[in-house]
Amino acid sequence: MNTIFRNSPLPRYYQLKEIMREKILSGEWKPGDLIPSERELSEQYGISRMTARQAITELVNEGLFYREQGRGTFVSRNRITQQLTKLTGFNEDMRARGYKPGTKVLSARLWPADETVAAHLHIRPGDKVFRLHRLRMADDDPLALETSFVSFIGCEKLLEDDLNNYSLYYLLETKYGYPPLEADQELEAGLVGSEEARLLRIAVGSPVLYIRRTTYTERKQPIEYAASIYSGHKYTFYAHLHREQLISK
C-alpha cells in the first residue's frame, strides 16, 4: 500500500499512518532516518498538512517516530532497557548493552543544599554539597540529563576530577572509599521543557521520565541524591515482579 484512496472508508490520516508504518517494517525507513516533512508528505500524497501532521503525531505517540526540535521527525531507534532491580552506573550500564557511553559536564560546583536535597542526604539545609549537572549519551545520542548532589567530607575534591571521562560511581568507590551499594528510586512521567528539550534534541512537550534516586554507601549512609530526565522514546525501565502467596481468601 503506497497510495491514499479517496473513496476508502478509512480516514486519510490512517491510510498515511499505515503507509509510513510499512516503510519502517520493510526497512525502507531505518532507525535514525529523517522522514519527509508535513509539506512533502502532503504534496506527495495529495492530502492536507493537517492530515499529515495527525498521522505523524500518532506514530510519535506509538513510539515509532520521535521529534527533534529544529531538525524534524526521525524513525525511532531501538530503546535501551534497564532493569529496576540492580544498581548500576550509567557508563557500565551502557557498555553492558554494547553502547559507547558519553558524558558532557554542563556544570560542576559546590552548592548550598536546599530542603529537598538536605532531607535526602541527611544533612542541614545550606550545607555545601558537590553539584554535578551532566548530559549523558549513548553512541553520541543524547539520552538523559542528570543532576547529582554528593555529600561527604572532602567532596569538594571532586572539582579536580575529570568527570567527562570517569564515572562518578567509579571515583566514589575507588578514590574516595564510598562504594555505592543500594538506592531508593522514584519514576514519574512528564513532558519536557524548552531548555531540557534543546539539550536532549527533542521537541518541547515530548514525553520524558523524571527519575529521582538516593544512593547509599555502607551503613545506609546517603552519598548521592540525583534528579534525572530520560528521553521517553529512547529508554525503557523494566522490573520483574513477584507476588507473595496468599495465606487466606
UniProtKB/TrEMBL annotation:
> Which CDD domains does the entry link to?
WHTH_GntR (cd07377)
| PROSITE patterns in the cross-refs | HTH_GNTR (PS50949)
Which UniProt keywords are listed? DNA-binding, Transcription, Transcription regulation
Q: Which residues form a coiled coil?
A: none
Question: Which top-rank group of organisms is this from?
Answer: Bacteria
What are the recorded GO MF terms, alphabetically?
DNA binding; DNA-binding transcription factor activity
GO biological processes = negative regulation of DNA-templated transcription
Which Gene3D superfamilies does the UniProt entry name for this protein? Answer: Chorismate lyase-like, Winged helix-like DNA-binding domain superfamily/Winged helix DNA-binding domain
Residues annotated as domain HTH gntR-type: 10-78
In its UniProt entry, what is this protein called?
GntR family transcriptional regulator
